[in-house]
Amino acid sequence: MGCCRRIVRVTQRRSAILAVIVVVLAVVAALIATNKAHDSSGAENVLGTGGAVGAADVRPAPGYGPLPDLSPASDWDNTAPLTDASLRGKVVLIDVWDASCINCRRTFPFLRKLQSTYGPQGLVILGVHSPEFAFEKSHTYVAQQVKELGVTWPVAEDPDMKIWDELSNEYWPANYLADRQGHIRYEHVGEGDETQIEGAVRALLAEGGSAGSAVVGQVPDSQQPPTGGDGVTPETYLGSQRGSTVGSTVQLSGNVRQTSQYAVVPTGGAIVLSFTGKDVYVVLDPAGTTPRTVAVTLDGRPLAADRRGPDVSATGVVTVAHQDLFHVVTGPAVASGTLVLTVTGGPVDAYSFTFGA
Fold first, then answer.
1. Which site in 41, 94, 98, 295 is 20 to 30 Å from 351, CA atoms measured?
2. Which pTM value belongs to this model?
3. Which residue stretches of 45-179 are H helix?
């Protein structure tokens, strides 16, 4: 499993489910103990730890439960509103994502390949955009991101996290794969494990149909984003709600005001970040319609050409015209350093940093 963001949303429904799970686990534990006495093989009809996935590895219906109710979606992108009934007869891969999540963005090339390869055989990829930050609830924002990020499959906008809750989801990105009868049979959290995901898709397509002869690796994709990796600085939040590291890896100067989701950085204010990674991304919001400017330095010097992220100008400035994830540092290899973002035309709301290797 690759990196991912995690959020836990405790609801009354989930509390009830957890209570039931405790009872069920006790029963299951007893059954497992009994089965082990009669079956020394210990084989289970679940996914293995690696390699391709066959039909026998995908849980039989009803698996994890039915497709979620899609009616809470506030808006739809790339499609008219979809329903459980309209998806019946298709294999459906639900991709729960968030536009400012770099881990989600890294999965898009693979999803494009899945769509191109298996769409003709009956696969439907359904994106569910469940926002982490308040500004990401805007339909205008989501529609713009769908276009800019090359998301060509249907997207249900889930600003109130109702579809998220029905899936009992906790992560970005997360995938839920349903069979032609609308039963979720497989789930995956985070980046990676593409062979397993493709194997599960092929297995469910083969039930009452055909997966075809093509495989994902044969389909080229021109949009290859940087890959994540271990050993880099974990995602860093500037708001107080998500366990901010302000005061340790991050220092704020110049009358910066911290809120629950972000830090408000005025003109002359700065964010000082100690990090390890090849790539650094930051979620910024101009806090209005006026474009803002942010100067970027690394280890006390302007960014060298080979370390300058694509969103940084040749003069070392990021122009924040709208809310987005900005790629500010790149490089030939993972390295440690001190990054300083100084607002030269503020204020700017700064939400979080993510990193790549």
1. 94
2. 0.75
3. 84-87, 102-106, 108-118, 139-148, 162-166
